[in-house]
Every structure is written in C-alpha cells, then in structure tokens.
Amino acid sequence: MCGIVGYVGTEQATPILLEGLSRLEYRGYDSAGVAVYSRQQEALRVYKAKGRLRVLSDMLQGGAAADGTTGIGHTRWATHGAPSDVNSHPQVSHSGKIAVVHNGIIENYAELKEFLLSEGVPFTSETDTEVVAQLIAYFYEGEHLSLLEAVGRTLLRLEGAYALGILCADAPDKLIAVRKDSPLILGYGEGCSFLASDVTAILRYTREVGYMDDGEVAVLTRDGIACYNYLMQPIEKEIIHIDWEIDAAEKGGYEHFMFKEIMEQPEALRRCIFPRVRDGAVYFEDFHLSDDYICALKKICIIACGSSYHVGVVGKYHLERMTRIPVEVALASEFRYMDPIVDSSTLVVVISQSGETLDTMAALREAKRLGAHVLSIVNVVGSSIARESDQVLYTWAGPEIAVATTKGYSTQLAVVNLLGVYFARVLGTMTAQACVDLLEEMLLLPGKMEQVLAHPEDIQYWASQYFNHDSVFYIGRNVDYALGLEASLKLKEISYVHSEAYASGELKHGTISLVEDGTLVVALGTYGRLFEKAMSNVVEVKARGADVLALTTESRAAEMAKTATAVLTIPDTHELVLPSLGVVPMQLFAYYVALMRGCDIDKPRNLAKSVTVE
Ligand code: AGP
What we know:
The protein has 614 residues and is an alpha/beta fold.
C-alpha cells in the first residue's frame, strides 16, 4: 500500500527513485510520481502518471529526462480522490516550492483544507496529502518559519497516520522525513542518504538502515542524517545492518513471486523450525515469558487480519488441544472496537507477516492498554508490530513480495505449533513423548512438503478443469474448516472467483441450497478423526449434482475416491501438522486458476501487500 522512496546525494536521483519504486510495486498501487530539484532550472520538477510505473519510467526515459541529485518518489494506492495524474504524489504547494509524498491518511484534512481555502490557498487535487504540502508552505512562506519549524508546526495540526517525504526548492540538498503510525526507514549510504517505506527499495544501495519511530523527524543530507524526537530534540538512531540478499526479493527465473514463494516454503520452514528444536524440546531465541507467567495464564487471545487471522483460527484448535488454555481469535479490525475482555492474565498473540498492518497495530496497542502481555509472530524484522510487542517470535520466511501470502502463512503456523509445544511442556498438558512425536513430524514437514511440490502438474490439471467456474465452495470440519478459510481467500484474492468456506456441518443449515448441478465444491478431508463425517458431506453435495475436488491424506485417498470427482493428496503426518501440508495444494490450485484466467497474480486488483490504512 503506497510506497515512498527518497534520495539525496551526488548521483542522478531519478534512476535511483525509479529503481526503488520498482521494488515497491508489490505493495499495490495505481499511480506513481517523482519530484527532483533541477539545478539548471533552479526549481522542483514533478512527473506523475496514473497506471503502472512503466508509464512514468517511459515518460522519464528511464530517469534520463529529469536532472537532479535530490528527489522523492511515490507509488500511490488511492484513498482520497480517484487514481489520476493530478491526485498522484508528489503533491506540491501552490507556490511550487514544497513537494510531499505521503503514506497513510490525514483524518482532519477536510477541516485543514477549509482553513487554507479561507486563507486564499488554491487546491488542485482531491487528496488529503495536498493539505500537508500547502500547510508547510503556509507556515514556511506565509509566516517565514524555517523549513524545519514549518514542518514541526504542520505536524501539530495533522491528525491520522502518515509517513512523509518532503522536498523544498529552497533547500535542494536536503530531504525531511516524518513518521507517525506508518512505516519509514532511513538508509545510510556513502555520500548519500535515503528514505523508504520498505527496506527492499534501497537495499541495492545500502544495507545500513535506521527504523524511524512514531513522532520522529529526520533531516537527510548527503553527509548524514540528523534525527529528532517529537519535541524536536536531537536523538541518536541505532543503525541496523540488513544481511539478507537482494536476490531473495527477486523472481529468480520464476514467472511470478507467488509461485517462487510457494516453492520456497520447505526452505523457509527449515529456517523457522530447525534451529528451535533440540532434544525433543523447543527453544526460542531471546524468550522471556517465565514458567510462572505461563502457568498463571487464564486465556490466550490471537489477533490478526486476513491469512494471519486464518493461522489464528488453526491456532485456536491447536493451542487449546495442546495447552488446555482457552483461546479466542479476533479479527484485528473488530477487536479494537469491541470493548474486549483482556487483562494481565491474558496473553495476546498478534500475528502479522508484514508487521505493519494498521488494524493489527491498533489492536496491539489496545491490548497493551488493557494490561495484556503481547507476543507477536512476525516476519519482517524491525517492523512496527515487532518493535511495539513485549515479545517477538520471527518466522524467518525471508522477504515475501506477492500480495497473496504463502510462505508467510506456513511459517506462522509452524511458530504457533512450536509455541504450543513450549507451553505444553511448561504446563504439563502434553507428555514428553507426545511433544517428541509432534516435533519429529515438524522436522519432517519440509521434506513432505517437497513431495507435494514435486508434482504441481496434478493440481494444474484440475485447475484447468475448473478455472471457468464463477463460484467455489470450500467445506471442512475442525482444522479442515480453518484450512478452507485460507484456501478460499487465496482463490478469491488472486483469481477474482467468488468463493466461500463453510464448516461442513453448517451446510444443511442453509448453504446447501446453493449446491446444484456442476457446482464446484472443494472438500477438505485431511483430519483423520472426522474423515467419516467429511465423507458424508461429500456424499451430500454429490447427491445434489456438485463436482467434488477433495483433499485428503495418501492413506485415505482410495476411500475418498469412491465418492469425490477427483482427489488431491498430501503425505500422512501428525494431526497438528496437517494444515501446514494441506495448504500447499490449495495455494497451487488458486495460483493455476488465476494463471489460466489471465490475472495479475502478484499484484491483484484493489489489494496491497501491507495494509497501512484502516
Ligand atoms: C493474504 O494473502 C492477504 N493478502 C492478506 O489477507 C494478509 O494476510 C493480511 O492483510 C494481513 O497481513 P499481515 O500478515 O502482513 O498483517
């Protein structure tokens, strides 16, 4: 969702900005733009275009057409005002002196706009961001404050979430960066400095980064970066070295990031699981929940959005079974407004791949306000959620670029299981042998997943049979229902096929009326204890004319084949590992359906990788 990049140095800025923006394309956007200071013309030059970055890049001849060594760039995901050239960022003050790129939402923009209009300031766009540029100019040019003071005065008036990159024609050797509730990082280069919403945008140029905290302001020059807290007092920023390779964020010969990331899952799981399992026990790095605290817990509350929420739904089944502690799962967007019953005897587990989802962050803060201890399961190291949590467990999946999460989901699930074993050992709710059995299967998971991934053509074939269906139902019980939620989301978000997931037992309470000749039902029947029930539901929908694509384990495939139209299989494994394996054929099915329907798989319409607005 919206991307920001900024550069100040001695090189031509525009090619660096375009390169950086191309690395942010995965976040989702509908228009792009850059502003650079041109020494020849002694003015800001702004270039913006609706549509793909390629349109902007062509306009700028890959960067050659815009001269200047200081600049800011942006990919916009429209919130206020339709996607258009004029609404794209950078937004510029009417004097043409102040250019601003912005991620987030200025909640009181209407009121501020009214004030500025009453002061005679003309507006050109419908965006909330233009208000920021105009307000800085109002204080800078109208009240003759210094640029930094004008920014500071503006911030006092802004309500909402924002990451800002600011360029002023009168100060062409500096950029100003501001962060509140929307991520922004600083990059320290040799004779240059960067700002970006995501480390991937600048990794090609520097590996030394600083994470801005809420309320902080930074002034970037080619000689370094000065940081200030919300009181404008100078602060020291910790510089962190990023050690993952840029190749990890490239396609590496695959047609789509999503397919690459599906294929990377076994390796990601090895990184996530193996270092944490020793001698039949789980060891977490830097873990500080005491045994006494765990034993005194009354409740676990899992909070997340989207696929991370679906991990939470599996987590409820798994953690309750392993720990016998009651587990609630809440959508983050609901939790923050539902007057939740959470206190210091509740462990809140926040799950987020990006670590930047605004709803999840808001729920985390609400949980902390209520006195809960917050443990987060996060992929992106140093992300906002990771930094605000009391305790973080990283998933170590590596950079995930495709909007549809795959390795993010499977590694989150692995961490939930490891957490369950850890707690169960402390609580005595699983025997030592039961823990060993589960952990042994978790160590076998990457290899078994490789077996599933070795034959994507089977799933591709069935996708080719069904990709034209307009509607698909996923049914299952217990963890198969939880798996259905994720399978259904995967399909709808990338292929635009309507799909729903139902707990199979609910069919007869209404949904079965939708089943008719040729309806596609994906029946998830991996959970051994309820296999007979799953079979009955297959019979039920078949009797009403449905085509049933079933998923089960190898040992039950023959039985399932007696009824289902087609059967996909996964290797047999421990019950608590089944969803981790079962999700893979579902990811591939969604991928192939989207491919056959000609969809933009890595960047589905209207979606963003990290949802940093409410
Ligand atoms: C998953 O495929 C989705 N794109 C989306 O539901 C995602 O899981 C959700 O936005 C939560 O993101 P997070 O894990 O980064 O917080």
